UniProtKB/TrEMBL annotation:
<dbReference type="InterPro" id="IPR009725">
    <property type="entry name" value="3_dmu_93_MTrfase"/>
</dbReference>
<dbReference type="InterPro" id="IPR029068">
    <property type="entry name" value="Glyas_Bleomycin-R_OHBP_Dase"/>
</dbReference>
<dbReference type="Pfam" id="PF06983">
    <property type="entry name" value="3-dmu-9_3-mt"/>
</dbReference>
<dbReference type="InterPro" id="IPR028973">
    <property type="entry name" value="PhnB-like"/>
</dbReference>
<protein>
    <submittedName>
        <fullName>VOC family protein</fullName>
    </submittedName>
</protein>
<feature type="domain" description="PhnB-like">
    <location>
        <begin position="4"/>
        <end position="128"/>
    </location>
</feature>
């Protein structure tokens, strides 16, 4: 396999749910592969051992950690999305903000036509931009 750098998201039991949600929001997105924990393995049977998915062509890896950690996602790392249209930005914002928190509501902040920053219900941070 060729050397690559990809975002890696660690969940605690909601990786598959999050992937399905994310790929439903952006064109050119799909779940490419899911490996699951089996009987007698460290993680809960059926949860995600390792998965690969793409969002608008960007490859992302994720897992369901079998170990509880004292940390989670932080807004200091976010997924930055160049939206194709205002409708795409508005839809993504409305879906991602359900159960999450709005860090910057949609608006013109001077550096683009429209921008928003939201942390979703899984704790993943998203910057949505309309150039």
């Amino acid at each position: 396999m060729a050397q690559s750098v990809r975002p890696f998201l660690m969940f605690e039991g909601s990786a598959e749910e999050a992937m399905n949600f994310y790929v439903s929001l952006f064109h050119g997105s799909q779940i490419r592969r899911i490996e699951r924990y089996g009987p007698g393995q460290q993680g809960a049977e059926g949860t995600v051992f390792r998965a690969e998915f793409t969002l608008a062509g960007q490859e992302i890896l994720c897992i369901d950690s079998p170990i509880h950690h004292a940390f989670t996602f932080t807004p200091s790392f976010s997924l930055f999305v160049e939206c194709e249209s205002e409708a795409e930005l508005d839809n993504a914002f409305s879906q991602l903000s359900i159960g999450g928190s709005v860090l910057m509501p949609p608006g013109n902040y001077g550096f683009s036509n429209k921008f928003s920053w939201v942390s979703d219900r899984y704790g993943v941070s998203w910057q949505l931009n309309l150039q």
